[in-house]
Amino acid sequence: MAELKTLGLFMVTAVAEIVGCYLPYLWLREGKSAWLLVPAAISLALFAWLLSLHPTAAGRVYAAYGGVYIGAALLWLWLVEGVRPTVWDLTGAAVALVGMAIIMFAPRPA
Q1: What's the rounded Cα separation, in Å, for the pair 20 and 9?
Q2: How far apart are CA 16 and CA 89, in angstroms?
Q3: Which of 107, 91, 78, 105 is nearest to 10 (CA)?
Q4: How many angstroms separate the CA atoms of 93 and 73, rounded?
Q5: So where are the chain's domains?
């Protein structure tokens, strides 16, 4: 159960980070309103707060989170940007997620 909670928290964290970065992208590259920077800043603050909720060392959380971020970014690529990930994208995401699982769920001394 703790593993599902950790993975779910990582997924919400990834969405907050992606939204916080995608909105400025829309402003800078797509000519959208600069007002998008307000929800982007809120989303990035939410991202930082969510990372602080994990009960393990910060460096371990950041390292493991990267694997989940890769998978979430590829889902964003497909669902929001309409670009279907390649087999190589999916293979890389799978490797990253295995790495995340090893980092987060390995047995540790108490």
Answers
A1: 17
A2: 21
A3: 105
A4: 9
A5: 2-105
pTM listed for this prediction: 0.84
Tokens at 89, concatenated: 């994208």
11: Cβ–Cβ under 8 A, 6 or more apart, which residues? 68, 72
Assign 18 to helix, strand or coil: helix
Which of 60, 21, 58 is closest to 42 using CA atoms?
A: 21
Q: How far apart are the first and last CA of the chain?
A: 19
Largest pairwise CA distance in the chain: 52
Residue count of the chain: 110
9-22 pLDDT per residue, tens: 989 999 999 999 99
